[in-house]
Design brief:
Structural class: mainly alpha
Number of domains: 1
Radius of gyration: 14 Å
Strand order of the largest sheet: 1-2
Strand content: under 5%
Low-confidence stretches: none
Number of helices: 4
Mean pLDDT: 90
Number of strands: 2
Length: about 90
Amino acid sequence: MLLPSFRDHAAQLWRGVAMTELLLCWGGDERGSAFAGPRQDFPACIPVASQFPHAAGVALAMRLRREPRVALAIGGDGATSKGDFYEALNLVGV
């Protein structure tokens, strides 16, 4: 499951999100987050590093359900200097 940030368009396209869906989302249309392709993926998080706590929570839910899956959050541009990143590390460390 992908939990993308605002710069992960290539990963979303690779996973099956249509370009029209991305453009709808960035144009402010809520239908742009209803992906026809990878329905399990999350829409892009706009604030830097805010996808990491979401990914930690999703991964915990998958573990509790004993699902053999992973949650992937991609960060960059100084994401490791944000509090959200460290909050997620604390959650997965517990």
